[in-house]
Amino acid sequence: MSPTIRIAILGSGNGTNAQRITEYFQQGDGRIVVDCILYNKKDAYIAQRAANLGVTSRYFPSSQFREGTAVVDYLRERKVDYVVLAGFLLLVPQVMLDAFPGRIVNIHPALLPKYGGKGMYGSHVHEAVVAHHETESGITIHVVDNRYDCGTTLFQAVCKVEPTDTPDDVAQKIHLLEQEHFPVVIEKWIKNERP
Ligand code: GAR
User: Fold this and answer.
1) Which of 9, 89, 132, 172 is the most exposed place for a label (fewest CB within 10 A)?
2) Domains 1-101 and 106-195 share a fold
3) pLDDT tens string 39-76
4) Mutation choice for ligand 1 from 37, 39, 41, 108, CB with most ligand atoms inside 8 A
5) pTM above 0.90, yes or no
């Protein structure tokens, strides 16, 4: 029997993606499990979601995420194979990229390369999309490298933006796309990558 593949999810906020991904794999065949959820904002709701889901969660201050070694040591201790960024707003340090080469994935709430980069996250993205009168937006799931929102794109999905849409309307459409696609793309990515 092939060994269990362990995922760590890193987040900074609400944690709706973390919850969806965890539930998806909890309902799966058990080959892939969400081992732990790490976060860098003490009062982030993602911690409560982890508790509700029965998943180990751990707070690391942003300084430790930026430096990287304490987090990498923790992930190694727990025998984590893949790292999923789900609303995680810090740049991933080189030490973590080296520890998980090609094994860190991120979701971005826009059609990269548009509306990406430092400071482009969450509602800022949707406000910019509406301000520029875009007729469509979407999600991008990509492998992480040492830049914000770059790295090989694995998947994109598109939604329409109507002239009357507010940033909140766009956020809602993006949320639905994320919930539908992110766990499935993670699963395919991991399974295809393994020999
Ligand atoms: C998601 O929409 C995700 O795409 C976005 O933050 C939100 C987190 O929501 N990520 C970025 O903007 C990264 N640049 P969640 O905490 O409820 O999953």
Assistant:
1) 132
2) yes
3) 999 999 999 999 999 999 999 999 999 999 999 999 99
4) 108
5) yes
Fold of 1-101: Rossmann fold (3.40.50)
Ligand 1 atom at shortest distance from the alpha carbon of 116: 14
Fold observed for domain 106-195: Rossmann fold (3.40.50)
H helices of the chain, in order, are 16-26, 45-53, 62-67, 69-77, 94-99, 122-131, 167-193
Q: Where are the domains of the chain?
A: 1-101, 106-195
pLDDT in tens, 111-140: 999 999 988 999 999 999 999 999 999 999
Angle formed at CA 13 by CA 11 and CA 17, multiple of 5 degrees: 60
Asked if omega into 113 is within 30° of 0 (cis), the reply is yes
Block residue for tokens 């025998």: 79
Question: Which of the listed residues 9, 10, 12, 16 should we mutate to test ligand 1's pocket, taking the one with most ligand atoms within 8 A of CB?
Answer: 16
